[in-house]
From TrEMBL:
Coiled coil: none annotated. It comes from the Bacteria. It is found in: Cell membrane. InterPro entries: MetI-like, MetI-like_sf. Its main location: membrane. It is a multi-pass membrane protein. The keyword Protein biosynthesis does not apply. This is Carbohydrate ABC transporter permease. Belongs to the binding-protein-dependent transport system permease family. Residues 71-260 form the ABC transmembrane type-1 domain. It comes from Paenibacillus terreus. The chain crosses the membrane at residues 7-29, 70-94, 106-129, 135-160, 181-203, 237-260.
Length: 274
């Protein structure tokens, strides 16, 4: 029997539409501002839409800075961090979910406790360790502190706990080792979780600003979030250039989300929590 739409359905749809417009307004303003001249943005005379659309801001981004190099640096660091984080999270989650060993509960609680500690608290010790290893001003300084995610371990454990133990025992009886078990059995079953965690990890790495600002000072090693500071003048901000750089920075994240959209939504709905 077809569902009859009530007045409340229309109200809910209208409220969601208004909320969506409010959420998308800053992004629309960013894209439209990137097509304006700096004078038009500063004066505010043109309203939301540019009076004479121009690609001057985008041309300046690629002409006055090694923006392609920064994109490459961000891509390399984000992909490596995401790939290793997925591996370490799924492996640790598997151990905590399916193995019994002394101190397991305490160790897991300690891992969860690190989720409550703001990065600013451990920022100085992390920098001192990075400097001691001679990694300051290198891409490894961005990669190494972000290879393990306590949230990822927690999420993987919750998902893997839902996998029937009988399935794993049957695979072992067929001669599957632990590594093959992880690759052939567990990984496909937790793929929605891996997709959701991968997108979150990639986004956080791609948008990371504070840590690269601290450990990088060589222009050739910079990542794209630092470009927003690079294009700020000493006495005047080139708003159209900054907005153009912001649009270019956002595009890769949107592409990644669109590619893994279905798995991402499925991973959010399948929490695996008891």
């Amino acid at each position: 029997m077809p569902h009859k739409h009530s007045v409340w359905d229309g109200v809910v749809i209208a409220v969601l539409a208004v909320a969506a417009c409010i959420m998308l307004l800053p992004y629309a303003w960013m894209v439209l501002s990137s097509l304006k001249s700096n004078m038009e943005i500063v004066s505010g005379s043109g309203g939301l839409f540019p009076s004479q659309p121009s690609l001057e801001g985008y041309q300046t981004v690629f002409r006055d800075a090694p923006f392609v190099t920064w994109l490459f640096n961000s891509l390399v660091t984000s992909v490596i961090i995401t790939a290793i984080t997925l591996f370490t999270s799924s492996l640790a989650g598997y151990i905590f979910a399916k193995y019994q060993f002394k101190g397991k509960r305490l160790l897991f609680v300690l891992i969860l406790a690190t989720m409550m500690i703001p990065f600013q608290v451990i920022m100085i010790p992390t920098y001192l360790i990075t400097a001691e290893l001679g990694l300051v001003n290198s891409l490894m300084a961005i990669i190494l502190p972000n290879l393990v995610s306590s949230y990822g371990v927690f999420l993987a454990k919750q998902f893997i706990e839902e996998i029937p133990q009988d399935l794993l025992e049957a695979a072992r009886m067929d001669g599957a080792g632990e590594f093959r078990l992880m690759i052939r059995i567990i990984s496909p079953l937790i793929m929605p979780m891996l997709s959701a965690l991968g997108i979150f990890t990639f986004m956080n790495s791609w948008n990371n600003y504070l840590w690269p600002l601290i450990v990088l000072n060589d222009e050739s090693k910079m990542t794209v979030p630092l470009a927003l500071v690079y294009f700020n003048g000493t006495h005047q901000i080139n708003y159209n250039v900054v907005m153009s750089a912001a649009v270019l920075i956002t595009i890769p994240v949107i592409i990644v989300f669109l590619i893994f959209q279905k798995q991402f939504i499925k991973g959010l709905t399948m929490t695996g929590m008891k």
